[in-house]
Each structure stands twice: as C-alpha cells, then as structure tokens.
Amino acid sequence: MSYKNIILDKSNEIATITIHRPNKLNALNIETIQELHHAFDIADRDKGIKVIILTGSGEKAFVAGADISEFADFTAEEGKELSANGQKLVFDFVENLGTPVIAAMNGFALGGGLELAMACHFRVASDNAKMGLPEVSLGVIPGYGGTQRLPQLIGKGRAMELIMTAKMIDANDALKFGLINHVTTQDNLLPFCEKLAVQITRNSSVAIAAAIKSINANFKNGVNGFDVEIEEFGHSFATDDFKEGTSAFLEKRKANFPGK
Questions:
Q1: Residue 1: inside a domain, yes or no?
Q2: 251 part of the active site
Q3: 77: annotated active-site residue
Q4: 3-class SS at 101?
Q5: What is the pLDDT of residues 30-65, one digit of tens each?
C-alpha cells in the first residue's frame, strides 16, 4: 500500500513510521489515522520487525494535534464516532501491539499528538519538544485516551492541572513528571531511539509481547494483572525462545532467539 500522509521504512529489525504532513505540522486527520493503522498492523505482523519507532517529519512537530478543520462542524454523535474509531484503529491498537513502539517526539506534541505518544510503550523527546492537551481551550476534551493515559503516567493531580489549564510543558518538565523517558538533542533523537531499539532486538520478542500484555492488564478495568502475569509466565515455558534463552545462559553463549 502506498501512503499519502506517512512514510514506512524497515531496516535491521526496526520499522520507522514517520507522519508526513509538513504543511499541517503533521496534524492527524481521519485518513492519516487509517494509514497509521495499516502501517502498524503491517509492521506488527512482520516477524522480521522487532521494534517500531514513531516520529514526525521535520523539526517543528511530532504531531501538533488533530486536524480541527475536519471536525469543526461535527454533531455530538459524529464526535463520539470520531473518538471511538480513532481509539480502536490507532490509540488502543498501538498500546496493545505485541511489538514495542517507541515515540520519538520532535517539536510539538499537542492534543492528539500527545495522546498518540502516550499510546506508545515509551517516549523519547528532543530538547525543543513542547507537550500539552489544549482541548478545553476549544470547548472539548481529549478524545483519544488523553484523560485516561495522562493520569496513569504522571498522576491524577498533575494530569488534572495540565488538562484544565491547557498549558504546554517543555521536555525537561515532561521528564521530571515521568511523561517521557529521555531527553536528547534534535540531531540525536532518532539515533538514540535506534540504539534503544537495538537493545530491545537482542531479547526475546515473544517474551516482550507477553510482558506488554501483562503490564497493560494492570490498567484495564475488571482485569487482574497478577493473574495475567501468572498465565503469561507459564506460557513462556512452552516457547522455543525460553528453551534457547535458558540453554544459552547455561552454555555461557549469546542467545539466538527464534521468535516463537
């Protein structure tokens, strides 16, 4: 599939998805969300890909928000459908991928852009990054999981303040709050993320997928995360990766995980 709004590159077990709408500061529209779903699905199904890096083109923005012009005249029912479809296609979809996703946040990550980054498994930001959920300044609330994931990451009080004030924070404050994992220079953002990705590729992709599922279970209503962990831990013993990993350890050699 050829994409209009994104670029998908694959190299050395790493897929890089770049949102490419420079004239819109990479703002999300319905078409881009559909393309992102397809690209993430393709990368996740590719057994040769062990890590996905998500970024935005240019130096100004990761994603500067949703494309407001697309939904300014929506009815209440259309707004609800926009939120539900977006969460299903991308935000929840990314969060629950078995392939780890790193957000490489360059420049503005606002509204839907910050929500997209928060759906990724962890985040790295350049030192010029600015983050926030300004939706209430438009008379609406975050609709792509922002009211749920932001408190999970930084705590209820800080999330309430950021959402109610609609203010932006810089990369250093985001790091202090626990919203992001690392801050780098702009030039080093992708190389730094690629270095992290390489470290991940050395480990069992099967075990990593199980770990993602277990960690996410703790944040799902009606799900006992400990029970999921116990189940996934038990399943691990039946995998070829477990056999290879334990054999390599006992034989004092580097593991060569088959990924199954």
A1: no
A2: no
A3: no
A4: strand
A5: 999 999 999 999 999 999 999 999 999 998 999 999
